[in-house]
Amino acid sequence: MLGATTTAHRRAAPTLTFLATRPPTFSSTTEPMEAENFLRMLESKFGLLNCTPVQKTLFAAQQLHGAAGAWWANHVTSVGADQQITWDEFKDAFRAHYIPAGLVRRKAREFAALKQGNRSVEEYCEEFNRLALYAPEQVDTPAKRKDRFLEGLSAELQDRLNLNMGGSFAEFVNNAIVAEDGYRKVMAERKRSASAMGPSSGPPQKFRMVDTTPSGQRYRSAPVPAPVVRPPQPAQQRPSVPRQQQSQGGFRPPQQPNAQTGSFPCYNCGRLGHFSRECPHPKKSTGQNPPRNNNNGSNNRNNRGPVRAGRVNNTTLEEIPENSPILAGMFSVRDHPALVLFDSGASHSFVSGFFVDKYRLPRTLMKARYTIRSAGGQTPALYEIEKLPITLGAKVYPTKCMVLEGATLTLFWACLG
Q1: In Å, how far are 164, 253, 324 from 215, measured between CA atoms?
Q2: DSSP codes of every residue in 140-198
Q3: Parallel, antiparallel, or unpaired: how do β-strands 364-374 and 377-392 relate?
Q4: Cβ–Cβ contacts within 10 Å for residue 180, how many?
Q5: Nearest-CA neighbor of 146 among 166, 118, 122?
Q6: Which residue from 23, 70, 196, 233 lies 20 to 30 Å from 315 (Cα-Cα)?
Q7: Each residue's pLDDT tens digit, 302-357
Q8: By the 8 A CB rule, do 15 and 59 touch?
Q9: Region labeled Disordered — which residues (predicted)?
Q10: Which is it for the CA torsion 218, 223, 228, 232, positive or negative?
Q11: CA 235, CA 114: separation in Å to the nearest integer?
């Protein structure tokens, strides 16, 4: 009697020791990796015990509940109740039922196509790690893992992280989180700026261009709110704008500032200290040009190459009617948000140097040099971008643009042919 009790105690001892490790249980799942995790956790528990392969199967079978317990009972019946099943045989049968190869391949394809989309970096990282278990060959080195993670991030974050690929994967993910926070702050600030730019009601991407140069004229008949670049001419041979064109609301060359005060003379009377719309003197209907200051003569020229002069009108944005030929708003320029102004009559397209530097856009040196004159002074244009993509809806327009060096706004002038 004592011998039988001792034998029963010895048999119970390994089972109690196994249960003391708090092993996991399993019932059912739709995620193959949850089933794989169950096997992996059991393996770690068995590492704490001194048990045989058959004992491992008996211990694992005790942890199958519900649908999984019913599956195991059917499996034992199919192989024979008196047949001893080893741990490797258990794992093969378990994986064949709960981790089918077809489902694993499907999950691997999901990982290959994984993109951040509307997820935060943290949410994207969680999904990335979950699906990476199904495609270990794609992330079997730290470099491959970081490259695949970067590939799925949004275009804005990719540009910010491309030059910072060092460190561990955890550090790389942290850099992505920091970059995302910075990008969100920039976008929030741009949204506030765009809201302050116009009225709070009405379509946010429709504006009217209003001339705020001294003439005070609105460009409704002459489509030239964007920079107009003309070939170089000797100073003494440059024709002046006809008076008839000026009186009809056409383009008027911008005044040069006074050399001592830096102020612009009134277009109406030629005096300093006010604009033509505030001029106390009678309005001139002939549109005569006021006295000009010629201090900006040949001193600005050099012999490094041909210099071409363009002109930029100083404008503000207001809401415009539906039939206006001018459109401005926030659009995607090379996958980056930018304030874009379209003018069907413009001859050239421009992008600010601020925008180019911020997103590290590649640019090339132009054969000819240009100087863009505006009310704020002269802006050099030495570089260009051959095909800068502007996304309008589902269509992308590759646009050739001059880079306005020194421009601090992200305003992007464009003419689409």
Answers
A1: 50, 10, 21
A2: SSHHHHHHHHHHHS-HHHHHHHTT---S-HHHHHHHHHHHHHHHHHHHHHHHHHHHHHS
A3: antiparallel
A4: 21
A5: 166
A6: 233
A7: 444 555 544 444 444 444 455 555 567 778 888 888 888 776 656 778 888 888 88
A8: yes
A9: 190-263, 278-309
A10: negative
A11: 60
Type of residue found at 71: W
Residue 129, token pair as written in the block: 């790690």
Query: Are 197 and 205 a contacting pair, CB within 8 Å?
Result: no
Kindly state the DSSP code that residue 136 receives in the 8-state scheme. G
Query: 60 with 42: CB under 8 angstroms?
Result: yes
Specify the pTM: 0.42
C-alpha distances in Å from residue 125, one per residue of 150, 169, 177, 417: 11, 11, 10, 42
Q: What is the pLDDT of residues 43-94, one digit of tens each?
A: 999 988 888 999 999 999 999 999 999 999 999 999 888 889 999 999 999 9
Which neighbouring-strand residues pair with 211?
A: 315
Q: Which of 328, 212, 331, 330 is nearest to 277 (CA)?
A: 212
Q: Are 260 and 275 in contact (CB under 8 A)?
A: no
Are 200 and 189 spatial neighbours (Cβ–Cβ below 8 Å)? no
Lowest mean pLDDT among 84-88, 214-218, 280-284, 365-369: 214-218
Q: Which amino acid is at 204?
A: P
Residue type, 285: S
